[in-house]
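Researcher: Next entry in the queue.
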Amino acid sequence: MASEKSRDEKIEKLYDIIFQIHRAMLVTQSKTGALRSRPMGVHLSRLDDSLWLFTNRDTAKVLEIMKDSEVNVSFSCAETMRFVSVSGVANLTDDRATIEQVWSPAAKTGYPAGKDDPELILIQVAPTFAEYWDVANDAFSLIYEATKAVFVGAATEVPGEHEKIKDPAANILPIESAL
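Model: Structure for this entry, 179 residues:
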């Protein structure tokens, strides 16, 4: 259900949910045209509202992004009933200064060689469209609607917040691909 939130409030809520979930599925298109998903940790930069994902240089996802930079990053947390889908354009960089800026100690769990590993690169996702669902504060309504659907046979309306945001990061200047 859409609310009367301002664009800035919607964007702030979007990034708040992303920050809380942190883990996502990155979707790319394979060379055969099939969609491929894989779990990734996401690092936010509120300086430019990009989503940043660390990866190794020699991976299928890097080749897929080089062929088709349109990606989707989806977040889901069943415990809090919060969900996000971000469509965007991916860029690749091995710029050490950018890696240094985005790096956090948590990233070392996936990349034990650390931020100086020459195989470590970044995927920058500049969002072009995003949607979020936040049903966390409406658990009773969700149960009521589901029960009503079972007994009455009527379609249900998902309670809580559902917002769509076109160009949530319209001010992003994509990085120059150094690969």
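Model: The chain has one domain: 7-166.
Researcher: Noted, moving on.
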